[in-house]
Amino acid sequence: MALTFLENFFIFSVFASLISFNFRIGKFLNLSLYSAFSVGAYLVYFFGELSVILAFLLSFLIAYPLFLIKERICRGVMDATIVSLGYGIAIEEILRIGVQKGYYYVVSEGVRALPEVFIASYLLLIGFYLSPHGIRLKFIEEDEELARMCGVNSAAYGFASIFIATFFAILLGVVSSEGAAIHPRIGLSYMLAGILIAAIATIKRSVGERNLVNITAVSLAASMFLEVFV
Amino acid sequence: MRFLMYVVAALLPFLLKGYVSWLIGLALIYATISISWAILENEGRVSMGHSFVVGSSAYLSAITYLLFNSLAAGFLISIPLSAILFYILKRTTGKTAFVFATFTLSLLSYVIAPYIVIGERGGEEGFFILHDLPSLLFSSFSFVASAIVFESFLKSKLGYFARAIKSDELASRAVGIEVEKVKLTTSVISSAIGSFAGLSLALYFSHVSPEIFSLEVSVFPFISYVVTGGRKEYIAFTSIVLFLISSYLNALLTGAHLLLYAMLLIFSPKIGGWVYAKGQERLKV
Amino acid sequence: MLKVRNVSKSKGRVMILKNVSFDLEDGETLGLFGPNGSGKSTLMKIIAGIETPSCGKVFLDDLDVTALPPEKMVKLGVVYAFQIPRNFREMTVLENLAVVLMNYHSVDESFKLARKMLRDWDLDYIAERKVEFISHGESRLLEILKAYATNPRVLLLDEPFAGLDVENVFKVREKIERLREEGLTMIITSHRRGILSNLADRFLKMEGGKIVES
Ligand SMILES: Nc1ncnc2c1ncn2[C@@H]1O[C@H](COP(=O)(O)OP(=O)(O)OP(=O)(O)O)[C@@H](O)[C@H]1O
Ligand SMILES: [Mg+2]
After folding, report:
1. pLDDT tens digit string along B27-64?
2. Contact status, residue C60 vs residue C2, Cβ threshold 8 Å
3. Quick one: which of B152, B202, B157, B199 has its CA closest to B182?
4. Which atom of ligand 1 is nearest to the CA of C191?
């Protein structure tokens, strides 16, 4: 997919921030996000502008069961990560079996709002960190068990993080699929980029909004790299 | 007893005919992949990136075949390549981060593979290997050989050391186990078996495509392990059965087997919990 | 045979050990006691190579063994039994012991030898049980036995009596006395001196990371 430098930068930094936010607050690497992206791509194909509203509903439908499964049966980060991978594959296959028919779908008229999504997601995350909730979020980031013992409702924040990550991943799919031939795995390479960028950004070991700044810097470098070498 | 079962499984495709024979031959290759995976699990490492081991072997063999008319060269390079990579990952990550790292590795190779082009070949289409080698014989042989290596590994010093490391790495070092040596050796064994599986796969289809790096291959051994209820000695047999079932499902409805995989992944902690509960029951007796 | 010279250890801004020096003679048993948090475990771990000192040196028979990794120290005959037993959770008691012996013997021999050792220590009734499901006293004995199975010259026992009932204290004491008769060099820690009396040839008292009395 030939995306411009700026588009790459937007998608990378949002995706990486979502992955990182979900990981730090929800306490697992959410590997189902690639499918959320694909869901967004299908939404915009079928529903055009309406998909922004649908994205909100769908992300609840996607995030809530995942959250429940995580809370009920997972014993740790590894379990939850593996579960989320299964969840992602399930969504992918539902898309493939239920929606995709033989031929490719090409999104002729998309929603052009990538910069807006970029700004909105950053405003939300940074706002979250700077709000009165911020201190609790950072507490959870550093030691979830301790936070829970001190009366922070970490489960609620965990759900919020999964929900926000899923919602924006779907939105990313909605706003960046114009002109693309979509398929159920369309989000996979973006998730990969997101994971790599988030992983590189953690080297600096910052918490909260500072980590978001690091992610932006790494994303910038990554999109430059792509621009130059690919 | 298990040894006999391995031999029977390996002979099956020769006794049967047509599509079933072909399918079981393929199942044997997938079982070999699971064996390679189980060697790492014995050390407490859950790999979600075994498609890399398999795929790199298949790709490198195909590429050296194209360039130098030699399958063995690529295959031989791939063994140390994945062994060293996995060893480095083991050194630098803990058990949880290892899952992330191997998964990312397999994803990375999956995304990059379509861009591998040599001359006019490669890309989305992959590489063809025109050969008249007895590929079924090769895969059943690899399967039995891997199974024997696996069984003797489990009963060897190395296998026990690895299990100790799985339980407690520092305590292992404190009683004199040379942890790094063990980690390196298991990586080499696992990667050698995985590379055999990769070469078998390439020969079996006379073709390798980027799909060999797909998530499906990566999650397959883990799912087989979950289905065995954690008894890794049986992973080869479960893999064969699971592969046959998933081929059947896939024939009914394309992609249905992936739904099955997804469900098994989602409920894997539950199934793992069941294994644990059973261990406690056994104690009471 | 063991010389500890000016060993200090800091973690973050805290000094856990301050300039600790002492000698240990061949065949001697040293009782190391002091209150909780005085640095006994840290000192033992440094000797065994499990932790590295911030400065100072450790010599074994005049060989500088400072900061050698634990597996090397075991080869040289120095082994540490953890204060909180760290047995291999997913293995049976027998396998726990056998896996240590496998460093020196074949698999079959190791199992045979392990059985014999368990019988010697009256633990054969739990041989086939997974370590997760044995009592604290049993797991303490196994921890010591594992260390002993490396055939050490210097055995470092960290709080071998902690959390044991009277009967088990007795049992462990008896085993330690036997090791002593075998001529093993040992350091045994405890936060009470009393429990070490008659066991040790010599005592060192630690407080706040320093040796305050010898
Ligand atoms: N990893 C660590 N980080 C920071 N401080 C540590 C660490 N390990 C130990 N300490 C501190 O070092 C001091 C000495 O610890 P150590 O375990 O050696 O004491 P001890 O004498 O063995 O105590 P106990 O009798 O309770 O076993 C303690 O104050 C402890 O809190
Ligand atoms: Mg202590």
Report:
1. 999 999 999 999 999 999 999 999 999 999 999 999 99
2. yes
3. B157
4. 25
Query: How does DSSP assign A104-117, residue by residue?
Result: PEE-SS----HHHH
The per-residue pLDDT of chain B, averaged, comes to: 91
CB B63 within 8 A of CB B74: yes
- B276 lies within 8 A of chain A by CB: no
Q: Say how far apart CA B26 and CA B19 lie, in whole Å.
A: 11
Instruction: Compute, in angstroms, the gap from residue C41 CA to the centroid of ligand 2.
Output: 4
Query: Does C181 have pLDDT greater than 80?
Result: yes
List of residues 6+ apart from B6 with CB closer than 8 A: B143, B144, B147, B148, B236
* Amino acid identity for residue B164 in this structure: A
B198-207 tens-digit pLDDT: 999 999 999 9
Q: Is C37 a pocket residue for ligand 1 (Cβ < 6 Å)?
A: yes
Q: Report domain extents, chain A.
A: 16-102+112-229
pLDDT tens digits, residue range B245-277? 999 999 999 889 999 999 999 999 888 655 444
> Residue B72 sits in which domain range?
2-214
Number of domains in chain B: 1
A119 touches chain B (CB under 8 A): no
CB contact under 8 A, A86 and B266: yes
Give the pLDDT confidence of B63-110 residue by residue, as tens digits.
999 999 999 999 999 999 999 999 999 999 988 899 999 999 999 999
Which residue's entry shows tokens 């059943």? B140
C-alpha C4 chain-centroid distance: 16
Reported as a single tens digit per residue, the pLDDT across A73-112 is: 888 888 899 999 999 999 999 999 888 776 778 887 778 8
Please give the full DSSP string across chain B, using - where no structure is assigned: -HHHHHHHHHHHHHHS-HHHHHHHHHHHHHHHHHHHHHHHHTTT---S-HHHHHHHHHHHHHHHHHHHS-HHHHHHHHHHHHHHHHHHHHHH--HHHHHHHHHHHHHHHHHHGGG-EETTEEGGGBEE----S-HHHHHHHHHHHHHHHHHHHHHSHHHHHHHHHHH-HHHHHHTT--HHHHHHHHHHHHHHHHHHHHHHHHHHHTEE-GGGGSHHHHHHHHHHHHHTTT-GGGHHHHHHHHHHHHHHHHHHSTTHHHHHHHHHHHTHHHHHHHHHHHHHHHHH-
Name the residue of chain C whose CA is nearest to B174's CA. Answer: C70
Q: What is the pLDDT of residues C3-17, one digit of tens each?
A: 999 999 998 888 999
Residue B227 has φ and ψ, to the nearest 5°, of: -65, -35
Q: Which residues contact A217 (CB under 8 A, 6 or more apart)?
A: A201
Q: Is residue B236 part of a domain?
A: no
The CATH number that domain C2-213 falls under is 3.40.50.300
- CB spacing of B177 vs C79 below 8 angstroms: no
The Cα–Cα gap between C6 and C58 comes to 9
User: What single-letter DSSP state applies at residue C33?
Assistant: E
Residue B228 to residue B122: CA distance in whole angstroms = 37
Q: Which residues of chain A have pLDDT under 70?
A: 1-2, 102
Distance C13 CA to ligand 1 centre (A): 13
Mark yes or no for CB contact A192/B108 under 8 Å.
yes
Structure-block tokens of residue C145? 């036995």
